[in-house]
């Protein structure tokens, strides 16, 4: 039997191999690899390819959903070990509120970001889709979250990202909150224009963007 490698894990994510990915991850753990290595070099590498292919219309939504399911199964297995490996343990990196903005019912990108952040040790509060400005504000206040991730797939709903940021900035007790945005029609230039603190071009990069904000 051939040894399992990071490439095997990546391919299982790309192909949505829900029937084999958990066993592959267990094999790598038994071989002495860390959960963090498996996440970064196997799972996230594969999901990055999925995101790229989806944007280029080389993969379609049913395939992406299957990839996301395979990723989730692997992350669910790894999560306790990821937390154990964290120097701080428990909630290693803080809390992130995520949601798709008002008027937009799409959630595939948001769900992928949630999986990535959870696997990296963040606590994630998912508000779902069609989320109003006030609901974001209320959740941030109630949870004490340090970050909020806004998603939009429709160009017509991008304006609500600006409205959410303005609503957060009006609240003095939320001045510590850092805002990142992403979605198919969103660009770095747009993020800068509306005053977002960060822009994630794909789900795999969202973790790095937020960690970069941590370091600021």
Summarize the structure.
With 216 residues, the chain is an alpha/beta fold. It has helices at residues 6-15, 21-30, 35-55, 61-85, 108-119, 133-143, 159-169, 188-194, 203-215; strands at residues 95-100, 123-126, 147-151, 178-182, 198-199. The chain is 56% helix and 10% strand.
Describe this protein with a few key phrases.
216 residues, alpha/beta, Methyltransferase, Methionine Synthase (B12-binding Domains), Chain A, domain 1, Rossmann fold, 9 helices, 5 strands
What report would you give on this structure?
The chain has 2 domains: 6-85, Methionine synthase domain (Methyltransferase, Methionine Synthase (B12-binding Domains), Chain A, domain 1), CATH 1.10.1240.10; 95-215, Cobalamin-binding domain (Rossmann fold, 3-Layer(aba) Sandwich), CATH 3.40.50.280. It contains 9 helices and 5 strands. It has a 5-stranded parallel sheet, sandwiched between helices. The termini are far apart. The chain is an alpha/beta fold and 216 residues long. Helix 5 links the parallel strand 1 (95-100) and strand 2 (123-126). Helix 1 (6-15) runs antiparallel to helix 2 (21-30). Residues 87-91 have low confidence and may be disordered. It has helices at 6-15, 21-30, 35-55, 61-85, 108-119, 133-143, 159-169, 188-194, 203-215, and strands at 95-100, 123-126, 147-151, 178-182, 198-199.
Write the layout of secondary structure elements.
Elements: H1 6-15, H2 21-30, H3 35-55, H4 61-85, E1 95-100, H5 108-119, E2 123-126, H6 133-143, E3 147-151, H7 159-169, E4 178-182, H8 188-194, E5 198-199, H9 203-215
Parallel strand pairs: 1-2, 1-3, 3-4, 4-5
